[in-house]
Amino acid sequence: MADSDIPPTPPLLLPDAIHQVVRPGTALLRLETTHSRQGVLDGAWWPRTRDVEQEVPALVSVLTEHLGPITRVGLDAAAWDVIPTRLIIDDRIVHLDSFPVGDDTVLITRGNKDHFALMVVPPDTEPDAARTAMARAVHADNITQASEILVATLPPPTTEHGGAA
Known about the structure:
- This protein has 165 residues and is α/β, with parallel strands linked by helices.
- The chain is built from four helices and seven strands.
- It has a seven-stranded mixed beta sheet, with helices on both faces.
- β6 (105-110) and β7 (114-120) form a beta hairpin.
């Protein structure tokens, strides 16, 4: 197949194949090189657990590859197990802030003032719902808050008799 036969991928969207391989422990990022970041979210993260010391180092390591040194991570204390004040990740100190950002969001700081907001998909989310939510979060024109994306993509609860509630 010649390159001219391959349909072009829409700009600023991740190919569908990427979403199919997303598993717990994955972060999807939408990195724009424009001066204005219009979207509400810069990406999504699906941690395996709510253990900060287990999950955050891998996230920071992969983000550092794309964004440069990460200096702070903001997490909601109500959504995570114990949050230390700092972690040493790849021989660098990363400060952890605990404040009510919402259990569905993690704030990443690069340098002194450059902030990135990632939607946090709950660890126990079904794979299809997690992939759908993450795909919505990384759309360049997304203006929907993380909590709304998660509510919209989770399947409805079922009753004991197998019907929808």
